[in-house]
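# step 3/5: fold
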Amino acid sequence: MRAVCILIFSIIVVMESFSQAKITDRQTYAAGRFYPADKTALTDQLANLFSSCRKTTADGVVRAIIAPHAGYVFSGKTAAAAFSAIPENAEYKNVFVIGSSHVMSFDGASVYSSGDYITPLGKMPVNREISNKLIIGNKVFNFPLTAHLQEHSLEVQVPFIQYHLKKCRSIVPIVIGTNNRRTIMAIAEALKPYFTPENLFVISSDFSHYPQYDDAVVNDKQTAMGIVSNKPELFLSTLEENSQKHVKGLATSMCGWTSGLTLMYLTEGDSDLQYQITDYTNSGDSPYGGKDEVVGYNAIIVTQKQAADEPFSFNDTEEKQLFTVARNSIRTKLFGEKISFSPSELSIKLSEPAGVFVTLKIDGNLRGCIGRFISSEPLYKVVQESAVSSAFGDPRFSPLTKEEYPRTEFEITVLGPLKKISSIDQIILGRHGIYIKKDFRSGTMLPQVATENGWTREQFLGYTARDKAGIGWDGWKDAELYIYEGLVLEEDK
């Protein structure tokens, strides 16, 4: 009998392993229940939710959000408020979607690894490589995929991702089936290597269940404040205090508290991360809901503070040396005068690698402008080469003449490193130049161009996209955007 049992167990294990290796997409369960099953109707509803939701401009990169998972007619606008804090052109490698099981209990988490998630908007790729690594490397993730099949909390988040985060490459869907704090700590520890700025974590949870409207408002605020404290112990004590109040009808303060706790174990102690409540409603605010037995919805975001950029500068001597290098390089070309100097005579700062553009003007009118974004060569060498190219190699102008040289005004723009951005709000006009890249096309404009023309951010981007990158006025909206600081030096003759 024992041998038979072992054989049966072995067959089950093999079958389970085979089923996980076989590609099986997770089909829709919540479509038609929590949101429209028709693609057009769903797209229209999402467009309406995002256009009417409360908007928040995140102060930094959004690392995680907490969004509700009820029917869209009840909680959709609050969920959109959480997602809308993320710029549409934000690029994440993966979105980890984490929810607490409404269907079954098990001592760990189930990560879907056998295929992709299907919604009326199409297929949302699952990162099976990460999913399988979590399963193979951590016992807490070795639980059945069946936990996903009728679990709505993850699925309702996926259309928001497909609609709003168009550059998202894949998701990692995780269902938590345990209330054991040690297990939740282990889940967070396993996820820690993936909790990086290149990945977004979406925590799916509603808040209070079934109190009266006014009680829900008070209870949900207290729970949310426990979360934004970024102190797991305070959050847990808040849940306990809410329970001890014996609020009429209150079944739970947060149905996905284990998922929220997982996030807090990931963010705990990181002073660069900040929680922010961006919206609150409950089902009583919906025309489809009443004021009795409501369910609460909070939209919460976690942002990473932007590192302060250290401004760079040159002293008067260094500026004069740069303009001398630029002028002498052109003078040598024009008049055949060999003006030699030793690099050792220059400031050490001028021997450091940097990008630079040299602009020539006559009577305030552009006469040439050429340079390099990035260079491994010393700054003074790039100034030499860029000055000569601006004078004699700019295809928009004829070569500079000897007669024009005395009247030529020089402007040198030294560039800081390129920095990829996720929101155009990060562009500071007059301080930042922009570089736009889409497929094989790219273009840039220097910081001073926007202020000289009195442009808005959108105009700055539009002109650069159309006139420099050749991708059309709105081409920047789905392109890679970079900023760089440009220190503009003007010659003091």
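# step 4/5: annotate
Confidence is low (pLDDT under 50) at residues 1-21.
# step 5/5: archive (pending)
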